[in-house]
Each structure stands twice: as C-alpha cells, then as structure tokens.
Amino acid sequence: MRRLAELQPGRPGSIFTSDLSVNEFLLVREAGFRPIGLVLGSSIYHVGIQIGRWGKNQELDTLSQAMYHARELAMTRMEAEAAQLGADGIVGVRLTVEAREFGSDVAEFIAVGTAVKADEAPPGGGSWRNNKGQPFTSDLSGQDFWTLIRAGYAPLGMTMGTCVYHIAHQKLGSVFNNIGKNVEIEQFTQALYDARELAMARMQAEAEALHAEGIVGVQLNSHNHRWGGHTTEFFAIGTAVRPLRPDHVIDRPQMVLSLDD
C-alpha cells in the first residue's frame, strides 16, 4: 500500500512503472490512456488430491476448482491494487503459474499488468470500468489495445475457464489390436473434446456476466503440470469486449488504386 500511495496520480514527484514495451507505451498513450503503475497479484496455492478411475473419462472437479480459484485470487488482488490507484483499467496482463520448491502440489499463481487512467470519458459518456464497477483487465498487446479503442470497442475484463480432466487408459486388448495400424483412438478424442468444451463454455459464461458482445484474443492451452500423462488441464482465456456506442459501426477504409498508363 505504501508503494501504491507513492504512485497516486498528481502526487508531486510520483512516477509510473510499467511492463509495457516502448511501442506499447506510446500506443496506449495514443489511445488516450496514461500508465499509472505496475500492479500485481499473487497466490501460493496447495492443490488437493483427486484420483481418476483408470478406465473412465471424467473431470476432476476438485482440481478444476483449485486451478480456477488460485488464478481468481491472483486476478482480484491485482484488480484491488489498480482500484487503489483509481485506475480505469489494466492492460498487458500476464497470468502465469510457476512451480515452487515448497512441494510437488504447491504452485504460485501470478497476475501482472499496467494500471492505466483514461484522459477522458468514453464516447457517449459513462465509465471505462466494467458493469461490476471494477477496472477493466485485458491481456491484449499495446498494439491490439490501440486498434480496439480506435475501432470503437472497449475491453471489459479477462474471462477464463478451466477444466482438469482425466483421460481413460486403453484396455490391454485395444493396445495390442492397434499395433501397426492407423486408427483413431475414439475415447481419447472424445475426452479431449469434452474437456476443451467445458473450459470454453465457462469462459463464455464469464463474458455473459460482464454483458460482453464477444471475446477477442482467445487462447486455449493445455498443461499437464505434475499430474502425469493422463491428467491434463485445459485453460481458456480471452478479453471480453463491448462497443462504446450501441449504434456503433466499424468504419471500413476505402482502397484507392492508382494505375499508371
């Protein structure tokens, strides 16, 4: 809190901190936002134990909940720092998981970004903050953030969904039958499809809660962490956006061709 107090906008001698590159910093300023300071949130989390049945495809609910809750703690703490600074949003957010030496089931979840303050209210009035009254969050690059604002859209928040899934082992007979053959392993295909679908649906539900028009920059990643080859986490994340005006239409630049004789 002492560090954040020294970053308060308008305080004599205050300087901003940022993890934006030079190009990103200049484009964020061009979009009408001033960096205030680097904000972060952290959660060191012990992930519980849940065993999947050997021959069954199933979500491991305890692990899914742990992975989501740990990230949510890191994100809300970062947002709290931004709110303390009076920021309108956070850009360039990075959300990472790092294994620590405290134990095989302990990891640190870290959220880091640059808090920004808008030079003026959005077109049509209102606030840059989302419908929950929190500073918006975005993992878009400075270049993509500039393009989004210039096109008449605003970020609402990073939305995410996770699913830790146990993929059934093949029966011994199936393993032998498939030796030397090109053949789809249907239970593996279905398991991975179902797990990704659960992660995507949960991310979309978060966007709906923010009254978003859509989600841009979606990333769908898989992580084994330390669970072994048949247990995988699928993690979906993106930035929910809304038009700045209800009647907004994106201007399409006209192409002019010059033909020489």
UniProtKB/TrEMBL annotation:
The coiled-coil segments of this chain are none
Q: Which InterPro entries match?
A: UPF0145_dom_sf, UPF0145_YbjQ-like
Recorded hits in Gene3D superfamilies, A to Z, give: Hypothetical protein apc22750. Chain B (3.30.110.70)
Q: Which domain of life is it from?
A: Bacteria
What the record says about family reads: Belongs to the UPF0145 family.
Query: What name does the UniProt record give this protein?
Result: Heavy metal-binding domain-containing protein
Q: Which organism is it from?
A: Mangrovactinospora gilvigrisea
